[in-house]
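Q: what sequence does this backbone want?
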């Protein structure tokens, strides 16, 4: 078979969030708060361990009072914000205003970097006439990130969990993406980094290919294997 549509996850697949240190330093600089470098590193490490950076490492432990909102965080913008600012607040910071500022920072294009081969892969699929959709568990509009980095021109459709009130692995998200591309799920490939969430596409009939959620520098060509199957057949 030949794929007629390819669905991509966002975070850890096409883009990677900045480091916790860069995230925190940007917000401190914006707030005019000057701290010793070692103190900034300690705060950043504690925020990373808490799982407070969306797209970063998962929390080592979710506080009981956040368990429910954490489990359903990608179903709405309000839950997403509450979950991540709640985790951030488990780390005492120099100013209460920093918690919301950190959340706002992660939604900016400057906080994200596309993987080195993302533009090549998306543009090649477009030239070959293969539809491209982004299917993401997320609580905010990521379209400006794609536009700012020049990738939006190669994306035909976006299916974002908070806009649908459900989150992957719910098959309704993958079904919506296939429908927007005008393709049968059996003719589509899902590419993602989360075996549970992105693997839900299999139930709908899509093929699935997983990439490693690594820093940009450590994964220069992780998406390129998608191109060969796109014209020849599904990945094993």
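A:
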């Amino acid at each position: 078979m030949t794929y007629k549509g390819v669905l991509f996850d966002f975070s850890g697949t096409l883009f990677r969030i900045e480091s916790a240190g860069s995230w925190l330093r940007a917000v401190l600089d914006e707030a005019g708060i000057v701290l010793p470098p070692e103190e900034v590193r300690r705060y950043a490490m504690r925020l990373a361990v808490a799982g407070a950076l969306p797209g970063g490492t998962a929390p080592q432990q979710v506080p009981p009072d956040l368990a429910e909102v954490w489990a359903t965080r990608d179903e709405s913008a309000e839950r997403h914000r509450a979950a991540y600012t709640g985790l951030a607040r488990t780390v005492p910071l120099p100013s209460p205003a920093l918690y919301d500022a950190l959340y706002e920072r992660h939604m900016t294009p400057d906080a994200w970097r596309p993987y080195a081969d993302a533009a090549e892969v998306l543009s090649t699929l477009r030239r070959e006439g293969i539809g491209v959709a982004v299917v993401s568990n997320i609580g905010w509009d990521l379209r400006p990130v794609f536009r700012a980095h020049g990738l939006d021109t190669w994306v035909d459709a976006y299916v974002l969990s908070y806009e649908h009130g459900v989150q992957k692995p719910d098959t309704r998200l993958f079904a919506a993406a296939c429908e927007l591309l005008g393709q049968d799920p059996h003719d589509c490939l899902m590419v993602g980094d989360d075996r549970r969430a992105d693997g839900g596409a299999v139930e709908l009939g899509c093929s699935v290919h997983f990439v490693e959620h690594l820093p940009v520098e450590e994964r220069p060509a992780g998406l390129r294997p998608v191109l060969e199957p796109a014209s020849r057949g599904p990945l094993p």
